[in-house]
Write a structure and sequence with these properties.
With about 425 residues, the chain is of the alpha/beta class. It is built from eight helices and 36 strands. Strands 12, 13, 15, 16, 18, 19, 21, 22, 24, 26, 28, 31, 34 and 36 form a 14-stranded parallel sheet that branches. Bound molecules: uridine-diphosphate-N-acetylglucosamine and magnesium ion. The site of magnesium ion has 3 residues, from loops.
Length: about 425
Amino acid sequence: MKICAIILSAGKSKRFNSEKPKFIHSISGKQLIDFNLEALEKNKNINQINIISSKVNSKFIQNKNKSIFIQNPINGTGGAIKQFFSSNKNFDYYLVILADTPIFDYKIINNFLSKGIKSKIDISVISQKVKDPSGYGRVILKNNNLLKIVEDADCNLDEKNINLVNTGIFLISKKAIKNVSGLKKNKINKEFYITDLIDISHKQNLKLNTYINDKSPILGVNNFKELNNLEKASQELIKSELISSGVKILQPDTVYIETDVQISKDVIIEPNVVIKKGVKIMTGTIVKSFSYLENCYIGKNCSIGPFARLRPEAILQNEVKLGNFVEIKKSKLADKVKVNHLSYLGDSTVGKNTNIGAGTITCNYDGKNKYQSKIGNNCFVGTNSSIIAPVNIGENSYIAAGSVITKNVPKNYFSISRSKQKNIKNFKK
Ligand code: UD1
Ligand code: MG
C-alpha cells in the first residue's frame, strides 16, 4: 500500500494582510504548516510527504526538508491536485490537507487514515460542526451519506444554514483521484475546486464517506482575525491539558503557554506569565507573575520571579531561587543558587549554594565576542559586582560589594576591587 500526503500551500493569501504567506504565521509558537507536517510525520504508514507551493511561497518552506511541488498556474485547490497527480500517478491513496487549516491532535489523522483504508472508501473527508460556517465549504448529506460539498459563495439560502463544514482533509483512492480530469472551473472565481471531486465521484457510485471530527477543532485561517481566534482555541487546549495533568495555573486567561513545553505536576504558575517553546519545568517549582521564559530548563522546587526573564539555554538545577528583575542567558546554575534581585548572568556557570548579590552583572560581551564567567560552589558575590569575563571565581570565595572583578579569584579567597573612599572635610557647596 503506497500512500502519499500532500499539503496545499500555493495560494496567494489574498485575504491575509501580510507580506508573508499565511501558513508560516504562528499560533502558540508554531507555524500553521508545521502543525500539519508534524501530524503527518507521526504517521508511519505515509510513504511520502509533499508540499505544494507556488514559486513565490517556496522560499518560505525550503527549511522543512520535504519534497516541494511547484504549482503553476495557481488555479485552485483542485488545480493543485490535478497538476500534482499528472506526474505522481503511482500511489494507492492520496491524503490531502491544507496548510492554512492546522490539526492540533495528530491522532485524528491516524484514525482517519486507517478507517478510510480499512473500509475501502474512495473519498473520505473530515467534516466538523461549527457555530459560524461562513467561509467554509458546506458538507451536504443525503440520508447520512456524503453527497457533495458546496463552497460558501455558491451556497443557496438553505445550504448557507448548514453548519457541517469541510476541514479540507481528504483521503482519495487511486480510482477516485483520476476524476481530477473531470473538474470544471468554478464560474465565480475561475478556479478548480478539490471539493467538486465529491459530486463527480458520487455520480459514478464510488464509495464516499465523511467523518465528523468532535475532538480538538480544525479551523481554517484566511485572515488575522481567524488567526487570533485559532490561537485562543489552541491556548485553551494547551492550558487545559496542563491543568488536567496536575499543573496549577492561577488565572489561566492571563497566562500564555506555547506548544512544545514540558511542565511537571505540582508546578504553580501565577498570573501573567509567558512560557515560550522549549521550556521544561520540573515538579514543585513556582513561577511567579510577569516572568518570561524561553527555551530553558528549570529543576525541581525552584522559585522564579516575579519579573524574571529566562532566555535560551538557561539551565537551573534544583531549589534555585531567582527574584525580581533577574535575567539569565546561556548559563548553568547549580542546586540552591540564589539570585534574588536585579542581576544579569550570561554565558556563565554558578556552583551550588552560591549567593549572587543584588545588581551583579556578568560583563560577557566586548562588542565583538562573548566570554565565559565561572563562579564556583559556596561563593558569596557582594551586591553591585561586575564580573568582567572571561574570569574564574574559585569555590568558597567572597567578593566584596561593589567590586569590579577582572582577574581570576583563587578558591577560599576574599577579593575586593573598589575605588578608595575619600572623606574631605570642610567641604562647602
Ligand atoms: C477551503 C475549501 C473549503 C474548506 C476550507 C477549510 C476549497 C475549494 N475550499 O476554502 O471547502 O471549508 O478550505 O479551511 O478547497 N491553495 C493551493 N493552490 C491554490 C489555491 C489554494 O495550494 O491554487 C492552498 C492555499 O495555500 C491554502 C489551501 O489551499 O493553504 C486552501 O485554500 P484557501 O484559498 O484558503 O481555501 P478556502 O477558501 O479557505
Ligand atoms: Mg483557507
